[in-house]
């Protein structure tokens, strides 16, 4: 097991890389615990849950809303949960987002931790303290930043992931590499077959590298006032298309990265041959790289993006493979670019 400590103004979080789920009791701070999970995870792993009350919600992004939050609040009240209780989320990205939000707001804040069961949550959603829910179809419109006590990443759980969910996590690994780590990007290019076969040796190394990239950035800028915005590469276009076309998060971010990379090339920041390398890598990893978007609908959704400030938007662009830059640009530049494609 590799232990990574993340220290921020709001607290200290431990990421337990490669720890086994069966050892979860070693990391729970006391006996008063409530588990929150979804129906899919419960089917696979409930037999291994520690003996605590379980609140079960539906599976998937469609349940990441205030109705689900309200349902959990009601269950916590029924269980007479007080501020001495610890909330344990067991699941993927949706569970981590909802559980972190519920624990951070119920009785003005309970301690919480995650057992991260998907590749997407192990490399992204469970790390860094962003918690929240969607509202009126818009991604993560209501939320809070607060760190979990721990995140347990059991790599063996990835073996049972549906293919689409596994590929979704790969998109975030590619994002970390392309914005920050050229060598990691080259490792991805050279190990396609092993990655798709879920080779634990390769995947564990990529998860560790991804978490370290995100942890380093989060420690410097927990509240996303500057450098942390780099982690939004591909997400401005991606979130819009995820909402409109009902894509997985990874599929949408893959598309968003290609559009953002081509926009970077048009602005003279990155050569087109590097954009092509990114496209080939995503394509080899069975991720979507082309779509004919409803441009007006995409732009309308983007106008409500959290990264937009007045007439400008914070946009992440590539300078080269492994290097990115944050620019505040007129939203009209984005509109013109997309409408001319």
Explain what the structure shows:
- By secondary structure, this protein is α/β, with parallel strands linked by helices.
- It has helices at 39-45, 66-78, 93-105, 119-125, 163-180, 182-190, 192-196, 200-220, 235-245, 249-266, 272-284, 295-302, 331-339, and strands spanning 2-8, 11-17, 33-38, 54-57, 86-91, 111-116, 130-135, 138-145, 150-153, 308-309, 312-320, 323-330.
- It has a 7-stranded mixed β-sheet. Strands 10-11-12 form a 3-stranded antiparallel β-sheet.
- Helix 10 (249-266) runs antiparallel to helix 11 (272-284).
- The chain is globular, with a radius of gyration of 19 Å.
- The mean pLDDT is 94.
CATH class placement of the largest domain: Mainly Alpha
Structural class: alpha/beta
What's the SSE pattern?
A: EEEHEHEHEHEEEHHHHHHHHEEEH
**Multimer state:** single chain
CATH architecture descriptor of the largest domain: Up-down Bundle
Radius of gyration: 19 Å
Domain module tally: 2
Précis, in short:
The chain is an alpha/beta fold and 341 residues long.
Give a topology summary.
Blueprint: E1 2-8, E2 11-17, E3 33-38, H1 39-45, E4 54-57, H2 66-78, E5 86-91, H3 93-105, E6 111-116, H4 119-125, E7 130-135, E8 138-145, E9 150-153, H5 163-180, H6 182-190, H7 192-196, H8 200-220, H9 235-245, H10 249-266, H11 272-284, H12 295-302, E10 308-309, E11 312-320, E12 323-330, H13 331-339
Keywords:
Dehydroquinate synthase-like, alpha domain, globular, 2 domains, 13 helices, three-stranded antiparallel β-sheet, single chain, 341 residues, seven-stranded mixed β-sheet, Rossmann fold, 12 strands, alpha/beta
């Amino acid at each position: 097991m590799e232990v990574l400590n993340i220290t921020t103004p709001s607290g200290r979080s431990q990421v337990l890389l490669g720890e086994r789920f069966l050892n979860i009791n070693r990391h729970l701070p006391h006996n008063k615990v409530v588990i929150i999970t979804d129906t899919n995870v419960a089917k696979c792993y409930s037999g291994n849950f520690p003996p605590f009350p379980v609140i079960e919600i539906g599976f998937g992004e469609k349940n990441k809303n205030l109705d689900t939050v309200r349902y959990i609040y009601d269950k916590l009240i029924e269980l007479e949960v007080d501020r001495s209780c610890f909330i344990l989320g067991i699941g993927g990205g949706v569970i981590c987002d909802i559980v972190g939000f519920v624990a951070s707001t119920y009785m003005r804040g309970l301690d919480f931790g995650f057992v991260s069961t998907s590749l997407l949550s192990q490399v992204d959603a469970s790390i860094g303290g962003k918690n929240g829910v969607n509202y009126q179809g818009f991604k993560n419109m209501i939320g809070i930043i607060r760190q979990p006590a721990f995140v347990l990443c059991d790599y063996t759980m990835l073996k049972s992931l549906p293919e689409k969910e596994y590929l979704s996590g790969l998109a975030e690994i590619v994002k970390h590499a392309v914005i920050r780590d050229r060598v990691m990007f080259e490792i991805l290019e050279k190990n396609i077959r092993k990655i798709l076969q879920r080779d634990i040796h390769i995947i564990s190394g990529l998860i560790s590298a991804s978490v370290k990239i995100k942890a380093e950035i989060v420690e410097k800028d927990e509240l996303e006032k500057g450098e942390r915005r780099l982690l939004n590469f591909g997400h401005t276009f991606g979130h819009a298309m995820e909402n409109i076309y009902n894509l997985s998060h990874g599929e949408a971010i893959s598309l968003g990265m290609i559009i953002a990379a081509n926009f970077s090339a048009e602005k003279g920041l990155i050569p087109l041959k590097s954009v092509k390398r990114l496209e080939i890598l995503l394509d080899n990893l069975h991720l979507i790289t082309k779509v004919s978007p409803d441009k007006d609908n995409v732009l309308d959704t983007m106008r409500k993006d959290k990264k937009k400030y007045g007439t400008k938007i914070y946009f992440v662009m590539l300078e080269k493979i492994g290097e990115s830059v944050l620019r505040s640009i007129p939203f009209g530049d984005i509109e013109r670019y997309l409408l001319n494609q």
